């Protein structure tokens, strides 16, 4: 079976199961959540073997390298062979809880509280 020399990025991320539907992949591209080799990707942008694809999912980046090109959705074991996952590890639940939480109805933060929140966030 001949493999194509390039595939649309929205079709490829759907085929390797990074998005549930091809239209969700196209929507992610239009929203700027997909980057190919560091540049924002349009849905019809061509992907080639060796390209790095970054997909923003649920606030975290999925970084994969294209190992094989496929245009149609295949089984999970075959899809796993088409990419090399270089994603950084997800933060632990304890690391995610660094966000300052204010009581409901507490109103607008005072200047002192705002500075404490910014210090907590590392700004």
Automatic annotation (TrEMBL):
Q: Where is the RNA-binding S4 domain?
A: 7-74
Keywords noted in UniProt: DNA-binding, RNA-binding, Stress response
SMART domains, alphabetized: S4
Q: Where is the composition biased (Basic and acidic residues)?
A: 113-123
* Ranges where the record places region Disordered: 89-123
In terms of CDD domains, this protein maps to:
S4
The similarity comment for this entry is: Belongs to the HSP15 family.
What name goes with this protein?
Ribosome-associated heat shock protein Hsp15
Lineage, top ranks: Bacteria, Bacillati, Actinomycetota, Actinomycetes, Micrococcales
